[in-house]
Amino acid sequence: MIAARTPLKLGQIEISARLIPDIPPKQLGGSLIFLAIETLKGNGDLEGAFESAKQFIRREYNPTVIEQAASLAHHLNRVKELEDAIR
Q: 35, 31, 46, 56: which is closest to 78 by C-alpha?
């Protein structure tokens, strides 16, 4: 996780984005979760982005991640599933 966070802090977003798939979703947090969701969406993996956001929300409350997850849930027609994860 440190290997992905350090380049992000140095503005090397592309390097971090390449390393994120190797990090288990349960270990993603802070700025890495935002980048992971956006990277997965950018690669067309909306399911993966939604699942990563949902896992994070179950561990930690973050309004920005909830917004990202809500957008994905609407797009994937999985709003009820997201509501359950938030509870």
A: 46
Helix ranges (H only) for the chain are 2-9, 13-19, 30-42, 46-59, 63-76, 79-86
Half-sphere exposure of 21 (CA within 13 A, CB side): 10
Of 76, 75, 70, the closest CA to residue 53 belongs to 70
Residue type present at position 65 = V
CB 46 within 8 A of CB 73: no
List the structure tokens of 75. 């797009």
pTM: 0.78
Residues 18-73: tens digit of each pLDDT? 767 777 767 777 778 888 898 889 889 999 999 999 999 998 889 999 999 999 99
What is the C-alpha separation between 59 and 75, in angstroms, rounded? Answer: 23
